[in-house]
Write a structure and sequence with these properties.
Length: 833
């Protein structure tokens, strides 16, 4: 096929995909106007006794498969059968359930404002939480017992890593990939604010605390793809978190070998002011001491966060979200011993180090929001926010190494000892990398309830200023030969040097329509919208139509079917501009993908307990991709839109009460993702031209399995066990010093089991309370956590060692695995009051 015809077909294929999505979107919006004449609408706002909005409250009809949840401002809208007696049920975890007997005429609209009172029966709380269901492409994530989960990183994101479609191979990092994407393709929101992280981090041990403070979280929902137009421009997933509104004074504290946290919350000014504040400190020195590289690790990560709300009247509400993060990482290496290879060829690397590393990643985030509610149907929000980061990465580390073959003969007295030296050498790693970045934005969002229809819209301007200086190199010497070897000059093995001074602005907007209505076959929830984005650096603008539908058939009330999709663009933010050599390309375009996601949820009862089985299949077409390689957690982009690709897979999840009163789940994901650089080729040994075609993307992982299981001692639920298990099949790894992405091998699979043994002395399941001056303590527990229970050496990346033959000058490279942490035991104390 000639190139002209090939480009014509590809161009029309992309246009056809856009036309298909747009046509489907218009059809959905047209069909949504077809409303049964035998329905009515109930809408309103769920509040607490203190007048605060209550998000994610469940609104349902007794005996019927109808339901919805309140949004982040407490508002809801639900179509109900007309001309008959119904009972509207309003419930939420920790609150007493309310019931409203109703009988509405066809087409009637009824406004109610449920006022929820706190409940005390904990068993009922578990039951209510289990009934929270999917809304569009989002699934709720339970926060119950999160604090008791064995968690080596101390990050909230650990909970996500056992969900279907989510993959992570590093217990030290909060980063995760979703359905073949990398971490940069994920959106994270807290109270509607898009969250950013430091940019220069290259390894999990440098990474501090994630923005999300679990002590402040009220509700969580997660979409692995097919999310709506109200969310930003990324190609993989959305994590949407809402911090809770306090109902009374309280707090919590925790302490372990890995750090500690304290949080307080309360009300003031006759409940017009509510506040949350949390301080966290983390040091993973205890974990890092189990790595192959021995030395003086001095990590120190600090975080302060607050969320303030002020409601002077029913019409106005002001809120402020602030965060200060100070991350300091110091490391003085001593030596390293790493054994690797096979039974027939066992090798050990010895390294003696000299030098040190000092890194700083300090960030500040602030967002001020004013919400005006001229009526119960209309909410207008105005937000001003800013994110600032100051980052510095500095190291000079010299290593002298010896690579030796080990005795592999069974029965030998020297089994496992070094018997032959393969090579000796030294290396010097140097870096002086600095970054200062500011992202500021002004945004308006609105929401209008018109009967059973909800309209949402938004307009946002964002200004970005990034100043980055990269100066990094590596020199390798093997037996007196500089690598790469040249008998005329002394060469560096790797150099990255450049400077980027970026100033740009983005203008984004969206319009979104949602409605829940009844048909003769069942209940249909529809969400459809369109998103626009303009970027002044290149003058590029694009439209992204998106939709989602959830159908509840009347003939099978236990099922929920869903379909979602759209176009998703990802304009570059920072890292995508720069290639591995430090050169920047400011003419780069937004990456683009088209998603189709379909699946079903089945709700059933097993052993007289609730369960849910979910299955979801997806297909993503992508073009204008920027190829990249992953080194530990650092993503190295090519700096150009070179590739096209696809990702397809199947996600399965079983969730329910395997043990009465506790929630456990198991997930299995099958996925394949490939990409191709059109026109790329190489010359083989015979002199022929080879076109490699599609090759695996760095996140290509065929099988991923996650398990979270809870249990307790029969007859005494104060003794509990929390088990987390993860398995990820082999990921591709590219060879260094080559531009060919089709040259790769696969690292070993990731296998990890963490277990926690908990004793709850005071609180739920014990029937015990402190007396006297400690009577305010409502929970006290002690946990013993075993990280990496099976003590498996998991590989996160490779250190490449070169040897040179003294006679021929030929170079041979060895991929020495960088292992993650080994087995560790942690003790944790938790108090809530």
């Amino acid at each position: 096929m000639n190139s002209g015809r090939k480009q014509f077909i590809e161009r029309n294929h992309r246009v056809s995909g856009m036309q298909f999505i747009t046509t489907l979107l218009v059809a959905c919006m047209f069909l949504s106007q077809v409303r049964g004449q035998e329905t009515a609408t109930v809408f309103g706002k769920v509040i607490t006794t203190g007048g605060q909005p209550l998000p994610l409250a469940n609104i349902s009809l007794r005996g019927l498969p109808h339901g919805t949840t309140s949004d982040t401002t407490g508002y809801f809208s639900l179509d109900v059968p007309a001309g008959r007696d119904i009972i509207l049920v309003v419930s939420s975890v920790g609150f007493i359930t309310l019931e409203y007997p109703l009988r509405l005429a066809p087409g009637e609209t009824r406004e109610i404002h449920p006022e929820m009172k706190e409940g005390t029966r904990e068993l009922e709380e578990v039951t209510v939480e289990a009934e929270i269901r999917r809304t569009g492409s989002f699934v709720p994530v339970s926060m119950k017992d999160y604090r008791l989960i064995p968690n080596a990183s101390g990050q909230f994101e650990t909970l996500l890593k056992t969900l279907p479609g989510v993959s992570s191979r590093d217990e030290l990092s909060s980063r995760y990939s979703v359905r073949g994407g990398n971490f940069d393709e994920n959106l994270v929101y807290v109270n509607g604010l898009e969250i950013y992280r430091p940019f220069l981090i290259r390894s999990g041990q440098q990474e501090g605390l994630s923005f999300i403070n679990p002590d402040l979280v009220g509700s969580v929902k997660f979409s692995a793809g097919g999310f709506g137009a109200e969310y930003g421009d990324r190609m993989s997933s959305v994590l949407d978190i809402t911090y809770r509104t306090p109902q009374k004074t309280g707090g919590s504290a925790s302490l372990s070998f890995l750090g500690g946290s304290v949080h307080m919350e309360g009300l003031a000014a006759e409940n017009k002011i509510s506040w949350l504040a949390g301080i966290r400190y983390k040091t993973n020195r205890y974990l890092l001491q189990s790595l192959d590289v021995a030395g003086d690790y001095q990590p120190s990560f600090f975080d302060f966060q607050t969320y303030l709300q002020y409601q002077p009247s029913n019409r106005w509400e002001f809120s402020f979200l602030g965060n200060l993060s100070l991350n300091d990482y110091r490391f003085v290496p001593d030596d390293r011993e790493t054994s690797f290879g096979t039974v027939n060829h066992a090798v050990k690397l010895y390294v003696l180090y000299d030098g040190q590393e000092r890194d700083r990643f300090n960030t500040r985030t602030g967002a001020l929001t004013a919400a005006y509610k001229p009526s119960s149907r209309l909410v207008l929000k105005f937000t001003a926010s800013a994110f600032h980061t100051m980052e510095a990465e500095t190291f000079d580390i010299r290593g002298s190494y010896s690579l030796n073959e080990l005795d592999k003969e069974m029965g030998s007295k020297n089994l496992g000892d070094s018997i032959l030296n393969i090579g000796i050498g030294s290396f010097l790693n140097h870096a002086r990398n600095d970054l200062a970045g500011t992202i500021a934005s002004a945004e308006h969002r609105g929401e209008y309830l018109a009967g059973g229809t909800t309209w949402k819209w938004g307009l946002k301007y964002q200004y970005e200023a990034v100043d980055n200086r990269v100066h990094e190199w590596e020199m390798v010497d093997s037996a007196g030969f500089s690598i790469p070897y040249n008998n005329k000059t002394v060469n560096l093995a790797y150099v990255s040097q450049g400077e980027l001074n970026l100033r740009s602005g983005r203008l984004t907007s969206f319009l979104q329509y949602s409605r829940r209505f009844m048909t003769g076959a069942g209940n249909l929830s529809l969400n459809a919208g369109i998103r626009a984005n303009y970027w002044d650096l290149t003058g590029e603008w694009f439209l992204s139509p998106r939709f989602s539908m959830v159908f509840e058939p009347l003939w099978e009330k236990e099922y929920r079917l869903h379909l979602s999709g759209g176009t998703y663009h990802q304009p570059p933010l920072f890292r995508e501009y720069t290639n591995r050599e430090g050169k920047s390309n400011l003419r780069i375009q937004a990456q683009r993908s088209v998603h189709i996601v379909g699946g079903a949820d089945r709700y059933f009862t097993l052993w007289e307990r609730p369960f849910v089985f979910s299955a979801e299949a997806y297909l993503k077409w992508m073009d204008r991709l920027i190829p990249y390689r992953i080194e530990n957690v650092r993503i190295r982009y090519a700096g150009e839109n070179l590739a096209r690709g696809y990702a397809t897979g199947l996600d399965l999840k079983m969730n329910g009460e395997f043990v009465p009163g506790t929630e456990s789940w198991a997930s299995l994901s099958l996925m394949r993702t490939r990409e191709d650089i059109p026109g790329d080729s190489y010359t083989d040994e015979t002199g022929g031209t080879v076109y490699p075609g599609y090759y695996p993307r760095p996140t290509d992982q065929l099988v991923n399995f996650g398990l979270h299981f809870q249990d307790y001692l029969p007859g005494d639920p104060s003794y509990r066990v929390q088990l987390t298990m993860m398995y990820g099949s082999r990921l591709p790894v590219n060879y260094p010093n080559t531009d060919r992405y089709d040259l790769y091998f696969r690292m070993p699979p990731y296998r990890r089991v963490d277990i926690g043994f908990i004793k709850v002395w005071v609180g739920e399941g014990t029937g015990k309370r402190f007396q006297g001056k400690f009577q305010g303590i409502r929970h006290f527990s002690v946990s013993a956590e075993v990280f990496n229970l099976l003590d498996i050496n998991n590989t996160i990346s490779y250190h490449w060692i070169s040897t040179v033959n003294n006679l021929s000058g030929e170079t041979r490279m060895y991929a020495v695995p960088n292992y993650l942490t080994s087995r560790r035991i942690n003790i944790k104390l938790t108090v809530r009051f």
